[in-house]
Amino acid sequence: MNSTFKVVFNKARGALMVVNEATSSVQAKGTKTVIAAAVAALMAGGAMAGNLTYDSIVNNEGTFKFLNGKGEVTNIKTNADANKLFSDLSAAGTDVDEILKALGQVNESKKTGIVFGYAGGGNVMDTTTHALAQFVIGPVKPGWLKGLNQFSKNVDDELAKLNFNLSTHTIVGDVNGDSSPVVLGMVGSDRFINVSLNALDDLSRDYTITRHGNSTIELQSGNVIGAIGGSSAINVGEGFKLLGGLVQTGAKNTETIVDGNSTINVQGTGCVAGAFAGGSAIAVFDGTANSTVTGNSYFTLNNSKGNEAHGSINTLAAGIAGGGLAIGMASGDAVSKVEGSTVIDLQNGLAAGVMGGGMALSVDGGTMMDFFNGKLHAENDAFKPINELGKKISEKLKGFSPKLTETVKTESGTALAESHDITIKVGTGMTTLGLVGGGIAATYQNNHPASSAVSTAKADNVTILLGGNEAKPDQTFDGAWKSGLISAIKNLGASGGKAKVDKVVEFATAIDDYDGATIGVLGGGIALGYDSMRGDNGEHSPKADASVKNVGIQVNSGYNVALVAGGFAVGSGHSLTGKDVLASANVDEDVLVNIAGGETIGLMGGGVAVWTGSKEAHKGLGVQANVDNVTFNVAGGSVDGLFGGGLAVDDSNPEVGGVYEDARNAEANVGNVNINVAGGKVGRLHVEVFNEVENYPSGEGKDTPDMKLYLKAGLKAIQDGKAAIVGGGMAAGNSIAIAEDGSAKDAAGARVEVANINISGGVIGEEKAGMQGNIYGGGIASTGGTTWVGTSNITVAGGTIHGDIYGGGLSIGGNYGKGHECYNDALSAVDTTNITLDAGSLNGNVYLGGRVLEEGANANNKGKANATVAAGTLTIYKDFKFLKADAVIDGSGADSATLNFVNGYDFSKTEASEVALLDGSDRIVIKGFDKLESGDLVTGADYDMGGKTSVEVTGNYEFGAISSANDSQTLTVKEGSALAVQSTVAPTNKFVVEEGVLALGTTARTSDARDGLGKYNEKAGLYLSGQVNLANASINVGETKAKNGVNIGSNGTLIVDASVDDGQEGNLSTDVTGKITGEKGSTIHYVHVADKGVVEVEHEGFTTVTVDNLLYKVVKVENEDNQYTFKIATGSELAGTGLEHFDGAALDGMADNEVIGSLLDQANTAITSGSQREARLNGALNLATAGGVQTAGIEAATMGIDQATKRAALTNVFLDGWTGFAEVTGTSLKMGGDSGALETKTELGGITVGGEYTMGDMTFGVMGNFGTGDVEGEGDNDGVKNDVDYYGVQGYAAKRMGQFNLVGQMGLMTTKNDVTSADGDSADIDATIFTIGARSEMAFQISKSCQAVPYVGLNYLRVATDGYNTAKGLSVDDMDQNLVSMPIGVAFSGNMDLASGWTLRPTVDVAYVHTFGDTDVEATTKFGAAAINTNLDVWSENVGRVGFGLEARKDALSFGGQIGGAFGDNDHREFYGQLNMKYLF
User: Fold this and answer.
1) What is the pLDDT of residue 242?
2) By the 8 A CB rule, do 775 and 694 touch?
3) Residues 6 or more apart from 1286 whose CB is under 8 A from it?
4) DSSP 1218-1232
5) What are phi and psi of 964, to 5 degrees?
6) Is the pLDDT of residue 738 over 80?
7) Which residues pair with 1314 in a beta bridge?
8) How far from 629 is each of 675, 779, 780, CA to CA, in Å?
9) Which of 101, 318, 865, 1148 has its CA 20 to 30 A from that of 888?
10) Per-residue pLDDT tens for 119-131?
């Protein structure tokens, strides 16, 4: 813009003046008028809006520098050669003049020119600086003077504010690619440079420019290098003096605001490098710069391909930021904010270096001094070009005597780049290299400032979408495509004699062909903190913070390499205080990564923290890249290498006073890691493309610790460890030594509190050799690093795993020389690991511990690798499948290891067609557990002691053999458990059986051993079956203090198996070598004696000898030492056993029944007498009778008979008409206990409802009975229980003939019985009782109010009990009984009329009841081909009873009740009670 007016402040007049440059006239104005004039000047001057072409610029402005769009839609259609620009800059080196020449190139013959410093709104500069700059630049660089004149000269008020109500829109190039501009340093809105240069006077100023509207840059073709989507504020504050202090900088505060959205849209063939969608703020020296976008910021890339006209690098977007830029130097404070959301939409093209947030840079004044003096890191050759440039700039300014004030020399700058919610979308047409979700914060201090250089790149939530909106779970990329991509990346690092610019162009052209490739993704931000102070106690360390709040990454498709969900923090410095964190790139809350499709190569949930230096001891935490929680969900696609934690590298070699110091300068921690694989594929990370891995040294002193070694060691660990899933993080380099009583947590550089790995589907690894993928619950440690996981939980509930599972982590040795004493052991530590194998399958091994690839140690025995697990539990369910025939289940790597088969496991069983047949020489090996637990039998495996000195068995295990055992190891059976070892020679370890059973021998089975001991609640036993050599065994069973040999304690039992497989009696069943000693109170128990096998066992000292079938006796084999066999016992030999009244042959045929067998077993401790055994056998063979089925049925039917006959008896009062009644009855009956009956207690309660009709001397009635109750066995029948329900109907009639009465009744009763026995058997049994009977009676009047009624009755009962099958396999036939009862008695009744109108009627009934017929029950019980008959009493033949009743009647209503009892043979004792009510209608 050509400005006609400028606004100055006249101190003499004390007012703002508008100066007409043409006439030099001055007019005083008010403030508002002056600002309005300035705005008008800004809007009126400058380059013409519309198309900016070479001709229009030359004709109108005469310069390509600092052109203005003045807020209108402007189209830049110039042309320039980008390649020549890069070549000229490369050739210029550090020559300032050549650099300026390259930036300002114009070619008249080709009509090309580089547009420099364009602003879509306006370029604005404070007036004094503008004037002095004209004075300085004019004579030196006349070509740049025209560019300087494009700046609008702003008001010089102490608080000047400019407002523009107009959006800006700049278009670069055109959609057809006919023009190819090169634009350097472009600002979408306004650029304000405030230096406030002044001579002598203090003319420091505050300025604010606000543009109310949106700022848009649209790149259609050509090249834009250095673009700001919003506005730019540059403030050069007080602290820089020229000409001996006569002229100095003095800007205080500069602020630019875009009150709207800022957008950069790249399309067509446009190419952009170094673009910030937000604004920029640069504060140099003592002052502030602020740039704000109040709305949202947008960056869109949607390039087309195939146009490389005018030397442009086709379709490249490099160095892109969704936020703004803030630079604070030497006491300058810079802030750049995007207050709304940020969206980066990459649809088509090539993008390199994309970050969602902004960039914050800060340095101290000393660094600037060193730069201008050419001494910045002078000892480092890498800084030589920078120092040369600084020297030449100083030479250019030498004539002006430049000088920094003491304040800015010692103070540091601060910078803040703030963003909020960030969304980055990467489409399927993109090739992306380097994508950062957050921002970048970098600080640099080179001296000893009085304050810290602080940079903060703040962001809230980051969302990254890779591969478009549609998930492609089955997408893959062929090998040739991948090889081409890798070659393009490798070629970038190889010079081949080409210039760097040519290599970049070549790389961009090659890589652009790989649509869908995303290389390098960082979910968080990047923090760089550098402090070059050496050997000094720096009180003010630099601080860089690029933390974000949450990160979400969705991968739908594409080829995605190196995804790190956290941040990246790098630092170097020296601080003895240890208080300052130089660089932080944290994710404060959650990381969520969803993999739905495509291929992902390398996925890390945590961040990366790297500390570097040389002999610098920070004495505290230097850098951190922490994440609170990480969640991975893999549902489709594939992932090669999934790492839950972060990466920490400490390359500091800390040394203080010549002594190496422990230090942990780098931390990459995660709170909780959740890795969920429900589908897709997860494989190991293939790092073979790195040649260094193959050359990783093995042995001491082959390499020194440096970054290259860390890389090689880490990649070697991943490759050889076949790492597919790692729950923890990675660490390398220096770490803190762990104190003797300390924890690895205190030393670790990469920590994870809890790592949860859940596999519910998908495939892990590949079956192909060398392609297996392992799962590690811990982290990876190398070359001195330490990783720590508090708790790792690995759960497999589905899917297939081709590889091994480790509860711990992975480590590899240091392999460095003895001079590096500062390095401690490489340690991957896990406190607690839990592995649960629920469902799915594993083609590999399971290890509770970790894995050490190469120990490696230097001469001082440092650098040795370790992988530890303090405590681990492996839980396995029977539905889980082991596909590997010789798999190892290993707990030896955990200090304390527990194995639990929840519902048992049969390793010898073929579970499915794809499962390996495990019946050959290959066997599963279970190894090195401290505790063996199970809910059911575990069989088909071998056991390896695995170096454990003490193993506890609290489950049920059968092992083919126990290996790696010695006499210093002890295996203890506890808590009623069972352990079988099926080898011919007993293992050499010590066995202790505290509670449970140890089974030894070639045919030993825990089921047999448990049957022989456990079901009778014996405390401890040794079971021997088959062939076994105990000559060198050390076994203590039960309570014994013996130290050597095989000893059965006072509460122990030796169980010897006499079974024969071929059914040929007399064969040798158990052959034992070695003597067994029994202490006082011990028992030797022979089992399977019915097979009549022969056992050979040398024993002494046993108190009791028992057999598992009392029908047999032990017989010593003639002419054989220590051999015994078994024969049927005779009748006299069975006396007192309770078996003498049974058919022995029939009972023997039923011995294989679980219940019968247990009752025949002499070792059954539940049987304390012969009578009890007899009762229990009778009860087992006739469970119905033992449970009182018949007794309860007869009792319920008898109650019905009594109720019917008494209702029609002469003791009642009969009135013509209908009478309704209801009765509640309860009874308790005990009987049995003698030799013919099992003792029971029957309790029944029910309700009876009915009605009767009386007409003269005739009465007819009907009633229903409903009730419930229970029967319990008592005495020797204790433990039997029957839950009874009954219901029935009863009819009755009576004919009265004077004093004589005849009563008849008939009824039907049904009972439902749920019977359980003390021996664990049960059955549901039904019974039906039919009754019919008559009663005759005669009344005798004793007095006016009392009568006696003698009576006699006769009742027939038919009891039909249905046949039933018991739960334990016994079958009982139907049982029928026929009974006749004859009650003979007398009843007394009376009448008492009360004044109230009520009549009381008391009754007394005394009777004797004799029962004829089947008072006992004969049952036929069958088991297989065997059958046996039993006969048991169920009712008493002779019973006497007495009852007392009372009825109260008034008018038609009456109430009554009755109580009574009965006593008889078979210990019959009965008590009953009844309440009734009736009403006469």
Assistant:
1) 72
2) no
3) 1192, 1193, 1196, 1244, 1246, 1265, 1266, 1267, 1268, 1269, 1309, 1310, 1311, 1312
4) EEEEEEEEEEEEEE-
5) 55, 40
6) no
7) 1283, 1324
8) 11, 16, 19
9) 865
10) 999 888 877 777 7
